[in-house]
Amino acid sequence: MAQGSDNNDSSYTKSPSPGNKQGSSDDVRKVMRREKNRIAAQKSRMRQTQKADNLHLESENLEKENAALRKEVKRLTEEAKYLSTVLSNHEPLCTGLSGASPELLYGAHHGAFHQHISVPHYPL
């Protein structure tokens, strides 16, 4: 309810009759209840605004994280292509190993190369 909208309310424009102490007490309660309600509504609006601000910040942070992860995926994809090319170029040089078991080619750790290969870092 907007402030000042109670100007036409008779309980605010007339003073209660001296013999009507119950009415005066009810008016005080009504004013107190309206004030408490006004404060509660104000706090609720502030909490709602704060929640919206927090969600906006979280959204921005997640967008930044998403962009960084996409950049990393791109870099790793390029690195995988490069390593695949290096491996393809290296395999013909491994004479006498064709038909050998993977353990002999790659050692006990499957997926590990038998020789260290320097990998350039591509700028993104």
- Low-pLDDT residue intervals, each spanning 5 or more residues: none
Structural class: mainly alpha
- Helix count equals 3
Task: Let me know the average pLDDT.
Answer: 78
Q: What does the main sheet amount to? A: none
Order of helices and strands: HHH
By DSSP, the count of extended strands is 0
| Portion of residues within helices | 55-70%
Tell the overall outline. rod-shaped
Strand content: under 5%
End-to-end Cα distance, whole Å, is: 57 Å
Cα-based radius of gyration, to the nearest Å: 38 Å
Family: Belongs to the bZIP family.
Pfam families: bZIP_1
GO molecular function, one term: DNA-binding transcription factor activity, RNA polymerase II-specific
Biased composition (Polar residues): 1-23
Short descriptors:
124 residues, mainly alpha
Molecular structure report:
This is Basic leucine zipper transcriptional factor ATF-like. Pfam families: bZIP_1. With 124 residues, this protein is an all-alpha fold. It has a domain at 29-91. It contains three helices and no strands. The protein has helices at residues 10-13, 21-90, 102-106. The radius of gyration is 38 Å and the shape is rod-shaped. The mean pLDDT is 78.
Summarize this, please?
This protein is an all-alpha fold and 124 residues long. 64% of the residues lie in helices and 0% in strands.
List the helices and strands and how they pair.
Blueprint: H1 10-13, H2 21-90, H3 102-106
